Protein 1
Amino acid sequence: MMQGFSIIIPTLNRTDYLLNTLKDLIVQDYNKDFEILIIDQSVKEDMAVIAVSKKHEYIKYHHITHFKGLPEARNYGAKLAKYEYLLFVDDDISCSNQLLKEHFKSLILDNVAVCAGGITEKNKPNTDCNTGYFSFLTATPERGFHQKEKREVYHAGGGNFSVKKAVYFEVGGIDEQLTKGAALYEETDFCLRVQKAGYKIWFNYNAHVFHLAAETGGCRVPEIDKYIFSLARNRSLIIKRHLPWFYQITAKLYLLKLVLSYLRVYKSKSIWSAYLKGKREGQLLHATTIKNAQL
């Protein structure tokens, strides 16, 4: 396998943000080769991004119409990647020219397969303190990727993480069963499977990006009912796949508590219906089978 990084950027209707992201990635100070794979699921081809790709032979633009979803886009990019390390970043980030170098420093550590990069939210509070922690009691991933530290963690943030390509394929990539809605917990599930395979997830704040949180485009669910459905569905799969039976009880109760809190705020009976439907569908998903049609 060729040495270097394949940077994979799934995108949807975010031309201006993506162009700025590319400006930062083009100038990386990294002494090995890298490529940038843009997986665009917008309705129309992005002519402005195509123009940039034509100026840099290592930028590969792929306009995709035969599937929709963030997990699918990640897997598709991994399949196309030609280098030994994969770096997944959001299309609305900014970073220094040291991003690749810092991810590389982490991936060559003993038994490390995934580097969780630092993420500072530009327009949202950065409040979590337990960096990359996953509570098995409640099936809750905490972020805290703005903390200035380096250590082993349970999971990475989807907007900035790297992985050895061989390990990505070994564990089956991102589970496309989690694609509905906002693809909640897709990176958490992936990282937990990497750990089950015997590898480490390493957090390196210095492999850092600022997340600009674009207000439009991307992978988002504006309707509360659809969000609750996605929350219940995907969280139910996480509970079923990764938790022992005694924690499954507490995690299901915590999920119910979350949904009731939304009910109190929105006072909509449809939230309860969405929860029941999502929970039922999530429990029917295959806990032992990873769907990766695009890999």
Protein 2
Amino acid sequence: MKTKIWAHRGASVAAPENTLAAFDLAVQQGADGIELDVHFSADGVVVVTHDETCLRVTGEQGHVNQLTLSQLRQLDFSRILPGFSRQQIPTLAEVFDLIQPTSLVINIELKNSITLYPGLEQAVLDLACTHHMSERICLSSFIHYSLVQAALLAQERKLHVPCGLLYSCALYEPWMYARHVGAQALHPHYANLRIPGFVDACHEAGIQVNVWTIDDPDHLRMAFQLAPDAVITDVPDQAIALYKAVAGQS
């Protein structure tokens, strides 16, 4: 089974994270998918950025959910990578339009962990259907209640949208928990791969394993040898090259 390479916030070492430039570069580098994060703007648009505030990536104050799309568009989201051309915050619809002609999948993290966004699950599913991407997305969140809600909404619409449970610390038999809440995947921190038999136990239970976020070559090599379903990385080009090398040795 081939381990997929998903670009974390796009090719986010070489281009500003969570921008169209980063996602386009991930496509060019040969990634199998991209990972991104979504919030609501003040006027209810689903926008793509990681933090609840704009400060880290733009240098400007302001909460994403307190600024309209027009106000957010006035900020430069390339400030995190000095010297890069000015980048606006993308909407999820724009990312769908960019990725739709390709074969990539999109892992959408619902950022419900600090700021609660009632209706975010429904809005994401609506956009996925409108842009003919419902078969090429998976949803993830650290707030598992949000994923249960998303799964119920998808079921009502007869959509096949996998949900992946994000977590960091080691859990006991998390594949059983995933089945209990109706999730199709686990999205653990990559350190969980060191638990003996972890990937095999998940697969035997019918649960996929998509791990985050691995950039170190030694850690990538370890992951590829253990064969999770996907590895999420900031350096998709390097991960692809290393995967080919590891696969060639087996």
Protein 3
Amino acid sequence: MKSVKEVMSSNLVHCTADDTIVEAATKMKNNNIGVIPVCGSNQDILGMVTDRDLVIRGYANKKDGSSKVQEVMSDQLVSVSSDTTVQEASDLMAEHQIRRLPVVDSGKLVGIIALGDLALEDQSNRAAGHALEEISERPEVH
């Protein structure tokens, strides 16, 4: 079974708790992402902020663009280590009804695994299985 480190995204954009919500939104827009980890100075993860957090906890509550990320971020996180299996990560996402998990080793953020990563992994396994099935079912021609 594959581990999270084999399918996670590790080239991450992050922000600090003191960044403004406009700065977080701009990073999301510029990088075409819907979530940004919120980290301390040592890459320790403090929380996550999603595009939904910005809208629901931020703008819908009349917070202006200069409000700090720490006012809208989620800080009760479920995380996994890079050695966690893909299946365990999938089970955690289902159990907690979340789409993304921060990957944390020794207290430091090393990546994010998302439902999309799992879907791609599952799709490639199915494709390999289909190919094997096709090879196994072909009649021998001599």
